[in-house]
Design brief:
- The chain is α+β, with helices and mostly antiparallel strands.
- Helix content is 51%, strand content 14%.
- Strands 1, 2, 3, 4 and 5 form a 5-stranded antiparallel β-sheet that branches.
- The longest helix has 26 residues.
- It starts with a helix and ends with a helix.
- About 4% of the residues have low confidence.
Length: 301
């Protein structure tokens, strides 16, 4: 069965993550949840830009160069950077990775087999930034940012882990070896969006879905106004925000922990997703779901 096939691939350290993502896209479409496939598509095809990259795709880097000092040439020399401005240092020591998962898997295979590392070349004029801290007469011939390949490998681990968490949660609901024809009916009885968003986006405090939207989760434990402020940024009307405040306080007054899956808060969450589906708010359903789930986690501490 498709679900079990995906789990088996993900559970095998040597299983192709690219293949698992392709099968995941098929699975999401087959259960009528293709709107959740944005993250899967970005991981498969690569991200279109650096602006909305997930945090796990930001790698560290070192500045290396080929230099000439007198008659000596050093082909791989690590350049000092402490004399540079903080923003400049940050730009040189971080390397956003927008590559597709297949390309990352290939890069990791090359690194493991022959030590080849990913590098980001720097313009020729960058050499002038280091001249004053090098021995007089030393010239920078070429320079590049050498990417930390351990960080690159971690991207694969992170994506595999997040996807596996979702698939295992889903299998707990539908059962092992569930026939394909039963998947739609069984997944319809649960909040698949919540499962997916909690597994994929729940480990950080920034919700990033494709290039659609970035929502920072800034509220703190027991901070109802902070929670309302985060949700308000999605575009909900004041009446909806007042309803959320009342739902949370009503649940707490009755001795319940506010939960998107239960009680008055759960009812509000269901209504909020329906409004998002109708285009009432400015964010898409998957962004709304992920933001509410994560901000509620922050509220509960």
């Amino acid at each position: 069965m498709l679900l079990d096939d995906i789990i088996n691939i993900l559970a095998d350290e040597k299983g192709s993550l690219n293949a698992a993502l392709l099968k995941t896209k098929v699975l999401l479409h087959s259960i009528g949840k293709k709107d959740l496939a944005t993250w899967v598509t970005n991981e498969l095809k690569g991200y279109p830009d650096n602006k909305n990259l997930p945090e796990y795709r930001i790698c560290s880097a070192e500045v290396h160069a080929q230099i000439m000092s007198g008659f000596l040439i050093y082909k791989d020399y690590q350049l000092p950077i402490l004399h540079l401005e903080a923003d400049h240092r940050k730009d040189l020591t971080t390397s956003p990775c927008t590559m597709s998962i297949e390309s990352i898997e290939e890069a990791v295979r090359h690194f493991r087999s022959n030590g080849t590392k990913l590098a980001r070349p720097l313009p020729a004029e960058f050499g002038g930034l280091f001249r004053k801290v090098l021995t007089p007469g030393t010239n920078v011939i070429s320079a590049w940012c050498e990417v930390n390949m351990i960080n690159v490998e971690t991207i694969l681990t992170d994506v595999r882990s997040r996807l596996l968490d979702f698939m295992l949660e889903l299998r707990d609901i539908v059962g092992i070896d569930a026939p394909e024809k039963e998947l739609v009916a069984k997944t319809a009885s649960v909040d698949t969006e919540k499962l997916f968003n909690t597994a994929v986006y729940g480990s950080g405090n920034t919700i990033i879905i494709g290039s659609q939207h970035v929502q920072a989760i800034t509220n703190q434990k027991d901070d109802i106004e902070g929670l309302i402020e985060v949700i308000a940024k999605l575009g909900f009307q004041q009446a909806d925000l007042d309803s959320l405040r009342k739902a949370v306080t009503d649940d707490e007054a009755s001795g319940k922990e506010p939960d998107v899956a239960d009680g008055e808060t759960g009812k509000w969450y269901t209504k909020a997703l329906k409004e998002a589906g109708k285009g009432v708010v400015k964010a898409s359903v998957d962004v709304v779901a992920a933001t509410i789930v994560q901000s509620m986690k922050s509220y509960l501490g």
